[in-house]
Amino acid sequence: MDTFLIITYILILSITVCNANEDLPTNYIEYESQIVQQTRLLGECPQTSFWFPFGNVTDYIRVKRPFDDLTEFTICMHAVAPSERLSLLAYATLQYNYTITIYISLTSLSMDINNQQESIDASFTPGHEYHLCFASFITTTGRTYVFIDGELMHILHHEPQALVPGNGKMIIGQTAVMLATHGFSKCCSYQGKISNLMMWDVVLSVDDIYAMSQNPCVCPDGQIGVLDYNNIQLHGSVLAFVPPSC
Fold first, then answer.
1. Which residues, listed in sequence order, are joined to residue 193 by a DSSP beta bridge?
2. What is the pTM of this model?
3. Measuring CA to CA, which of 5, 61, 79, 132 is 20 to 30 A from 213?
């Protein structure tokens, strides 16, 4: 009987260890191993916040300052989840209408890169604010790692690309399909709040992304895209307001 109990205990322990190994954050390890430039300095973060009250086709933000070609990138923001599938960000170039597009719904996140769309299942509460980060190794593995509130939750699998073209047009709150004619689709017009939307031309570390999700007053330096008030044009009913100072 004692021998049976000992063997049973060993089997239970072995199963527990195996399950623990299966729960190791292998995606985090894989992610960190690909980063060329490790943690950047966390400095004072530009505070910006915009309200899209009605979800009209005339409501959007145009980013004035273009950026160069990208071989990797990170896009982060605080965003309120809408009740239907809407566009958070659209970036179009001469080469691709959907160079970078990000959609959110209550049950999914979708992202276009160079006209390739990939989606993942997610669960959001309408009206609740989330910190979202999309970190893309687009020229190597083609993988984009999706962080929600500082946690690595999903991986989008795009085909690897030579680069993401620069010198395009970026719009916040609408889809990219109508950028050429300056018209937008009501079906994708964002309604809600977007704050501290920023972009980097590198993939940020897990530590940096987590720090931003916990404290909106800090973020890595070297942004190539920030919705500061000198770099944007507001259209329609979009309202800009200054969040509490840090």
1. 51
2. 0.85
3. 61
